[in-house]
Every structure is written in C-alpha cells, then in structure tokens.
Amino acid sequence: MLQLYKYVRPAVFKIDPEAAHGMTIKALKTGALRPCSVVSSPILEQEIFCLKFPNPVGMSAGFDKNAEVIAPALKLGFGSTEVGTVTPKPQGGNPRPRIFRDPKSGSVINRMGFPNGGLRVFKPNIEKFINSTNKPNGVVGINIGMNKDQSDPAADYCALISELAPLADYLTVNISSPNTAGLRDLQQKDALADLIGKMMEAREEACPDSPPALLIKLAPDLDEKQQQEIAETLLSAKVDGVILSNTTLDRPEFLPEKFRGEKGGLSGVPVREKSTNIIRNFYNLTGGKLPIIGVGGISNASHAYEKIRAGASLVQLYTGMIYEGPAIANNINKGLIELLERDGFASITDAIGADNK
Ligand SMILES: Cc1cc2nc3c(=O)[nH]c(=O)nc-3n(C[C@H](O)[C@H](O)[C@H](O)COP(=O)(O)O)c2cc1C
Predict the structure, then answer these.
(1) Which of 16, 32, 243, 318 is at 20 to 30 A from 213, Cα to Cα?
(2) Structural contact between residues 234 and 175, judged by C-beta atoms closer than 8 angstroms
(3) Which residues pair with 241 in a beta bridge?
(4) pLDDT higher at 4 or 278
(5) What residues act catalytically?
C-alpha cells in the first residue's frame, strides 16, 4: 500500500506543504499509513552509543516535532526516529507560509522557527510511548533547542536535559537551524565548549547511572577552519556523536528564482553533496572515532550508502520522504542489503568510512 505514493503525490502536492504535513501526522496517528512488513536483516543491525539500531535509516528531526507519532514512524521501517526540536516553552514559530517545495529539483526551503508545544506537550507524549505495550523495535532520539526569546541558551538546553535525559535513548543538541537568530553562533568553538561543559553537567545530574548519548547537530555551511576547530572541541569534550547536517543557506543558481528568494534552510537534493563532503571531513578529522549520523538529500539506497562509505555510521532523512513517500525507509533498507552484499561486506559496520581507507 505504501508503494502507491506515486499515485497520491500529485494530490498531496496541490495542498499547502504544512497542511500536507499535518495530514500525514494525522494519517500516521490513526493507523491509515502502515507498511505490510518492515525490512530487516542482521547485515543492517548495529550497536552504537550502547543502543541497538535494527537498521541505519532514521527519521530526521523536524518531522515529529511534538513526539506524536513515534511508534507509527518506526512501523514504517525506520530504525530510529529523532523527535523535536522541542523548546522549553511552547512557541508558534514564524508566520505562514514557511515551508516551500520545488519538486523539479527535489528540494524544500523551510523557515519554521521551531513551532512546537513545548515541554508540557512533548514530555507526556514521550512518556506515553515509553509506557506503551508492544513497542516497535527502534531507537528514539530527542532533539532539543532554545526558545526564540532566550538570551541565555545554556539555560534552555540544560533545562531540557534535566527533564528529558531520563526519557531519551539519545539527545541531539540543535545549534544549526538557520531560523532562530543567534543559534548558529553557538557553533563557534569557545561558545560550543562552554555550552557542552554545562550540558554534560546537567546530563550527569539528571542521569548519573546511565546517561543517554549526547550528540551535536551542525550546519553544512562551516568552512574548513571551523570544521577543524569544532572536531577538536567535540573530541576533547567527549561528546558521543555528531549529526551532519542541518539545512543549508546556499541557493544554487539552478533553483527557480522565486523559490530561491525564500528565506530559510534548504534541504533535499541540493544539500546532498555538501553534507556528504562534511561527513567525509569530520570522519577524517576525528580519525573515525566519533560516530556520525549522516543526513541531507537522501532519497534512495545509493545516497545512503554514499554517506555510510564517506564515514556515517547511521543516516537520517526528511525531504526524501516528502518526494518518495512513506515506503522510503523500507526501500532504502532493501537496497542497502543488496549494495552491501554486492561489495562483499558482512555487516554494515564494515562499510563505514570505506571510501577513506
Ligand atoms: C520542514 C522541515 C523542518 C525541519 N525542522 C527541523 C528541526 O526542528 N530540527 C532539526 O534539527 N532539523 C530540522 N530540519 C532539518 C532536517 O532534520 C535535516 O537535517 C535536513 O532537512 C537535511 O535532510 P533532508 O535533506 O533529508 O531533509 C527540518 C527540515 C525540514 C525540511
């Protein structure tokens, strides 16, 4: 049934992108969107951050901002889902329209600005999932961000860690969305080291016995010097992993003029190569010691495989699902099994960074 998306897509694309997203969330909640079966194979399984990932394909942050459809997303065949970005207080985000599609280039521009229900909506939703029976196999990451009106970012990140660390398989610190003023400045090395130090303390206090992994999500628009400084900072601060990457501020010439003129972060096909390049750089800069989740422009198994071979241990996607539909995780996993077998890898772990060796 999920493979029928190509027939439904023209109708979906007539609807405003944010309304279409709302309908997708509703369809997942009501069970209207369900796969026949989930693709699984030992060749795709990995243990990373002491967590068992049944396959490497995750749903990226921003799709399920309020943690409403964790189980349905995993049932689509994703091995993990990263919910959020959640901020401590609820906020409405930027004025609509704030999501724009360009189907011809397979891209999206968004300037959402973290609309979400805040902790008071997000936390009960996560607890409901954790306490549910018959949970699907898979890992749940929580992506955290600061409120728009917060002048002390560490206060928001630490408050979220105190509340959510006990409920998270892993935590992602989003300092790379282009739609919150000042957020990307937290990637500057001194600001980053200071923020990580405070967050590590908050995590230790919240979960002294079994702290969830702490990951940092970065922009693809960092120059080589910034990449080197950040890689050093992440290693010396002993964060557990890095997500590469968020959306880009680039506006390639080939995009239609009106679309290019929209403010916000660009995702999908045009960010793919940039994101793969930064994955390769970080893999080399960290000597392959820091697990990387690769995201940006993945819409098929070859794209996912390219990122894994460049150094990503896991991958995520969002825009690809808008264009390819809800069968995308299953389709990628099927294709990955074939590619791994074709190249003689006994396990996906053996393929990580293979192009750099
Ligand atoms: C509509 C939309 C909303 C997003 N919201 C978030 C968000 O809240 N937090 C975040 O870390 N990334 C967010 N992202 C970025 C994605 O998680 C991802 O990093 C980026 O889109 C690149 O991957 P893709 O090309 O597969 O979409 C959003 C992306 C889109 C398209």
Answers:
(1) 318
(2) no
(3) 215
(4) 278
(5) 177
